[in-house]
Design goal:
Pfam families: ATPgraspMvdD (PF21068). By secondary structure, the protein is an alpha+beta fold. The protein is built from eight helices and 16 strands. The strands form four sheets. A five-stranded antiparallel β-sheet has the order 14-13-12-15-16, with helices on both faces. Strands 2-1-6-7 form a four-stranded parallel β-sheet, covered by helices on one side. A four-stranded antiparallel β-sheet has the order 8-11-9-10, with helices on one face.
Length: 329
Amino acid sequence: MQLSGDVVLLITHSGDFFTIDKVAEALLKKGAQPFRLDTDKFPLELQLTAQFDKSKSYHTIEYNNQSISTEQVQAVWLRRIWEPNITPELAPKFREACIKESKTTLDSFWDSLKQARWVDNLERIDYASNKLRQLRIASEVGFAIPQTLVTNKAAAAREFFEQVNGKMVSKLLTALSRSMQANSSFFMYTSVVKEENLQDAESLRYCPMVFQEQIPKQQELRVVYVNGEVFVGALNADVYAAAKVDWRKPGVDVGAWQHYELPDEVVLRLQTFMGRLGLLFGSFDFILTPSGEYVFLEVNPTGEWGMLEKDLNLPIADAIADALLQPDK
């Protein structure tokens, strides 16, 4: 069935729930027509067609017995892009080729949506995802940041360990997983580094890592920024003692999220920071230290926020819908 009228395209995957549903509901209440595109269903269950002639190009999406043309798309929410799902029965060389071609087709297809309003566009997300760039800009706009070392040199890691008096954590510059699900073996969480861990530090020559001073915590904050608005959830350090390094770690009961209000000067810095990155949306991680300092850790341009809407009833989905429907200036 060909849908008529304007649509808002929601780019995600088939395992996504709650957040995608809340945004779709908010759009419907505002009179908009959402169209969900599960990227992992391409190419087996989702069809994309691009046709070009001398004067015009034609692009269509067919999924779940519905079809739209890209000319109908007024806005795009880039929630998640997952790899195409290709049947394992194919011989490995053919399967790899099909995945590569499918990913390239998806990447090319987004170009046909450039006239739409994106929250946010791929180029800005890629630019903003560089964690070292984030730290630089955060410092430039006035945020405190942890002492940080990125290295593939074992001696440098050992020296930094001494410099921060043995209070050190490690992380990667990029997530190795597209998911934070508990059964994912490819997501590396922020981890405490002990002196004995550095005995094998020579393995850094294969892969550089990020090392940071371990910041003392009074509260850990998840700050969700949507087009100038901020929504904040806080976790008290004494409530989630088992998750003091990374509350996202599977199997840790972090307790209830609490409402929290940021000082005006912190909100202004956030707005300046997001303006520098050119983003309308971002999920920030901050530490509030016992001395009352706000320490910037990172921002995820497509980060999670469902727990804040669910536990604190924060209207994040409604704000995202408003950002999608707001005309570009």
